[in-house]
Amino acid sequence: MEKNKYGKELDVAVKVVQMACSLCKTVQKGLISGSFNQVKSKNDDSPVTVADWSVQATVSWMLCEYFGSESVSIIAEEDVQALSEPDSEGLLGMVVTTVNEALAKAPIYGLNGPGKALMAPQVLEAISRCNSSGGPVGKHWVLDPVDGTLGFVRGDQYAIALALIDDGKVVIGILGCPNYPLEKESLNYHDNGLHKFSSSSTSEVGCVIYTSKGSGEAWMQPLIHGNEGLQGPNCAKLIKVSAIDDPALATFCESVEGANTNHSFTAGLANGVGLRNKPLRVHSMVKYAAIARGDAEIYMKFARGGYKEKIWDHAAGVLIVQEAGGVVTDAGGRPLNFSRGMYLEGLDRGIVACSGVKLHEKIIGAVYASWDSSNL
Ligand SMILES: Nc1ncnc2c1ncn2[C@@H]1O[C@H](COP(=O)(O)OS(=O)(=O)O)[C@@H](OP(=O)(O)O)[C@H]1O
Ligand SMILES: [Mg+2]
Predict the structure, then answer these.
(1) Which of 73, 76, 302, 364 is 20 to 30 A from residue 130's alpha carbon, by CA?
(2) Which has the closest alpha carbon to 314: 295, 282, 337?
């Protein structure tokens, strides 16, 4: 693939995700201190916050600005339903303020913001235009404005995930991980016995990880603070998957919540292939980032009964792991299909991402050996 085919898209998208990370850090701080206390529940009872809508509006506005509102197609997680309810005026006001504060900082990131502040109808329009249904033809942006919202409201790990699909293939992937420590040493064991990222770490936190298809490279950029731009310590570093291929030395990651993946099934698989380390339970697509960066070797997700995985929960992370040298398939060993709309249609049982072929083959083999007795 031509190396710079998506160069402009990648350049703009990385900067937009940097902006979104800064926005989320501000909102998360406010949530924890109590000044941003509005968390809503969606129909499926999952939480949604000022940050989810604000990131979606900001990214949507920027992509339209740079790639033309007529032609940009965006598939994203949030809609404006809860935000448009009669008792949501205060919430909408917070979203409008948050979006305008973020857009006003665009020049820090080398981007052009709007000439004047957006009004509520423009913000609602920016959010609701992300309702593309995607598909096998043309370019579609895929956005999860705050992936791992539960982690976000807990002051823990979350991610901003943006990908570009072109004719059904993911061609660029960006993961903003505002709370992910830059140094691996910041991984440690918490009191509950699970292998988890330390939130009390003194190491610098926050990065944006990105790649483009066929480059064979994935990059990690620290978050941009203030006016320092991307000079000096903010230069991006190449990242690579772990070289460990011995299951006895490998670590696997999975969802924190047992409602999102079957912990007892993955524990059985882990035992079956000879994994000895405790699982690294982390909210959000930071799990893909952990594999791409070599902090863990295996990520497994086996959703319960009939749940259909959404493309925005995987697109960016899958490409980043692949370009960093890893392997990602469904549990039948087949590639994930991002060309069939908002769902990963045809997904066989679950998702398995590994740092290398050897571990991947072992996990897929273990799935075949134990599936029939799993009740999944
Ligand atoms: N029932 C069910 N089964 C499987 N997956 C589900 C389910 N419900 C939700 N989701 C999706 O899972 C996303 C969160 O996954 P995580 O791995 O981050 O979960 S966890 O917070 O660590 O438990 C989460 O993403 P966000 O909504 O962006 O947080 C959902 O898209
Ligand atoms: Mg998500």
Answers:
(1) 302
(2) 337
Task: For residue 307, give the ligand 1 atom closest to its CA.
Answer: 3
Fold classified for 7-239: Fructose-1,6-Bisphosphatase; Chain A, domain 1 (3.30.540)
Return averaged pLDDT per consecutive 10 residues of the chain, 376 residues in all. Answer: 80 97 93 71 75 97 95 94 87 95 96 96 97 96 96 94 98 97 66 54 85 97 76 78 98 95 95 95 96 97 94 98 98 97 96 98 94 69
Residue ranges covered by each domain of the chain: 7-239, 247-373
**Cβ(239)–Cβ(218) below 8 Å:** yes
Q: Is the CB of 148 under 6 A from ligand 1?
A: yes
User: pTM for the full model?
Assistant: 0.94
183 is known to lie in a ligand binding site: no
Residue 288 confidence (pLDDT) = 98
pLDDT score recorded for residue 212: 98
Distance from C-alpha of 292 to C-alpha of 318, rounded to nearest angstrom: 9
Edge to edge, the sheet with strand 169-181 lists 74-76, 139-147, 159-166, 169-181, 205-212, 218-222, 237-239
Would you state the pLDDT for residue 191?
Answer: 43
Question: Ligand 1, closest atom to CA 257?
Answer: 23
For 173, 220, 327, the CA distances from 176, given in Å and listed in that order, are 10, 10, 21
Buried b (16+ CB within 10 A) or exposed e, 299-325: bbbbbeeeeebbbbbbbbbbbbbbbbb
CA dist., res. 21 & res. 24, Å (int): 5
Q: What is the CATH number of domain 247-373?
A: 3.40.190.80
The protein residue with its alpha carbon nearest to ligand 1, atom 14, reads: 148
77 labelled binding-site residue:
yes
283 lines ligand 1 (CB under 6 A): yes
Distance from Cα 260 to the centre of ligand 1, integer Å = 5
The pLDDT, as a whole number, for residue 197 is 64
Q: What is the pLDDT of residue 189?
A: 47
Q: What is the pLDDT of residue 370?
A: 86
- pLDDT of amino acid 306: 86
Instruction: Decide if 296 contacts 159 (C-beta within 8 A).
Output: no
- Asked whether this chain's domains 7-239 and 247-373 adopt the same fold, the reply is no
